UniProtKB/TrEMBL annotation:
This is Phage tail sheath family protein. It comes from the Bacteria. InterPro entries: Tail_sheath_structural.
Length: 474
């Protein structure tokens, strides 16, 4: 260690503030991450990580500003930096055992160190010709995710380094969609959605795979995972429409038709957005906005994210070309069930309709806020009363559920979260033979408010006011 005498400073990286905690359903996000930077790269593939802070996400999966190669990182930024909200469940599908390429590099030693400029290099299996790790050198990653070799023996000769580096381009849509291996029982990709509740005791609130769902096969696969999760739950998913081939807002309608996505559980988004100088899939930022809006609203998802502020600087295409939509153009996208973003003295999310619109006009399935309210209420009913299953089917059980639900509904109604919620137990729905068979039926009526999407103020000139003002009525 060098002898120190004098005065010095040291700068630490900016600390990301602790996020606020969402409680009504956790976002589940699939994609790729620079797992060579993770604490345990071998254990970072097709595993679910519940991350409450940015630091946890980085420790489990690594981090890079290269959003295109490492798609999960844009979600990390959107949730933990842009909106400061968590937790999220992250799942990386990039496998360091197969999504790699050979790596060779010659490095000069300067002041006892050799610094690589190549990112994604795996330290496991890395070799330096003629040198032994921890005897002749040590190796660590710098802040850019590149290897730094520190010489321990005073060596000044160039280093020839060989090994493997991550190759995100080898990850395919099929890796994200995932599969179930009947021989091994191993699940990958979207198949892991079912593990969220058993692993963490949390119900999925949103599913997304930023950077991937513009591929219709990925989008459809994600939509199919929204229903019957664990045989119990349901949620919504976010789908990005392609911005590489769909370069005009007038092309979006055909792109939606080609995608085949018309589910009430899907929210379609176009185009991409720019955050902190980097292009990001809109789904990543929109998901964080949804989570933050819910948190600000007592964790009740009855508010529409539309017309809420986005911390972005532009809306863009895949090649970075800026897209400036105005209200009529944004409304045309809303009319076909697509959410966009408009610069209304600051960028705002714009759109209230699920992908089911305009074919479906049922309020609970058309409006994003109503659809999410129904999914949330249904999921919470299941988790609240799971402990009642197998209890005696007597009047006390029925009364406790009905009364508790009506008290809960009245509370939300008094808070202005909905127009009303009512549960009833009707004997007509519960014939004796059915009750003897162990089945009880309740009916619950939910009335979340629909969004005030169109506000009209009719202006009319009133000549009598001029007459009065000029004294004409005297």
């Amino acid at each position: 260690m060098a002898y120190k005498h004098g005065i010095r400073i040291q700068e630490n990286p900016t600390n990301v503030a602790a996020p606020v905690m969402l409680e009504n359903g956790v976002p589940v996000i699939f994609g790729t991450a620079p797992v060579n930077l993770a604490a345990n790269p071998k254990a970072a593939t097709n595993q679910l990580f519940l991350c409450k802070t940015f630091a946890e996400a980085v420790q489990n999966l690594g981090y890079s500003d290269d959003y295109e190669s490492y798609t999960l990182c844009q979600a990390m930024d959107a949730f933990f930096k842009a909106f400061g909200v968590g937790p999220v469940v992250l799942c990386n599908v990039l496998d360091p055992e197969k999504h790699t390429a050979e790596y060779t590099e010659e490095l000069s030693v300067v002041d006892g160190q050799a610094v690589s400029e190549v990112k994604g290099v795996l330290q496991e299996g890395l070799t330096v010709a003629g040198k032994e790790l921890d005897t002749d050198y040590t190796v660590d990653y710098n802040d850019d995710g590149c290897n730094v070799f520190t010489m321990l023996t005073g060596n000044t000769d160039p280093l020839r380094v060989t090994g493997k580096k991550l190759d995100p381009k080898k990850v395919k849509a099929s890796d994200v969609i995932g599969s179930y291996d009947v021989d091994t029982g191993i699940e990958t990709g979207f198949e892991l959605v079912r593990k969220v509740y058993p692993a963490f005791g949390l119900t999925p609130g949103l599913l997304l795979a930023p950077g991937w769902t513009q591929d219709p096969s990925v989008g459809i696969a994600l939509v199919n995972k929204c229903m019957d999760i664990n045989g119990l739950f349901r949620c919504e998913c976010l789908i990005d429409l392609d911005t590489e081939t769909v370069t005009k807002y007038t092309d979006v309608e055909q792109a939606k038709a080609d995608s085949g996505i018309t589910s009430e559980h899907a929210i379609l988004l176009w185009p991409k957005v720019k955050y902190a100088g980097k292009d990001m899939a809109y789904s990543a930022m929109y998901a964080a906005l949804v989570a933050y809006t819910d948190y600000q609203n007592d964790n009740v998802p009855n508010l529409s994210p539309s017309n809420h502020s986005l911390p972005i600087s532009a809306t863009v295409l895949a090649d970075g070309t800026e897209i400036l939509l105005d209200n009529p153009q944004g409304n045309e996208l809303n009319a076909i069930g697509v959410v966009t973003a408009l610069n209304l003295n600051g960028y705002k999310a714009w759109g209230n309709n699920t992908a089911a619109y305009p074919d479906v006009t049922d309020p609970k399935d058309r409006w994003i806020c109503c659809r999410r309210f129904f999914s949330w209420w249904g999921n919470s009913f299941i988790t609240r009363y799971m402990e009642k299953v197998d209890n005696p089917a007597n009047y006390r059980l029925i009364e406790s559920i009905v009364d508790t639900e009506n008290v809960r509904g009245n509370s939300l109604t008094s808070m202005g979260k909905c127009a009303g919620i009512k549960m009833v137990y009707d004997q007509a729905d519960n014939p004796l033979n059915q009750v003897l068979d162990g089945r009880i039926v309740f009916r619950q009526y939910l009335a979340p408010y629909t969004p005030a999407e169109d506000i009209l103020n009719i202006l009319e000139f009133d000549p009598s006011m001029i007459e009065t003002a000029l004294g004409g009525g005297e």
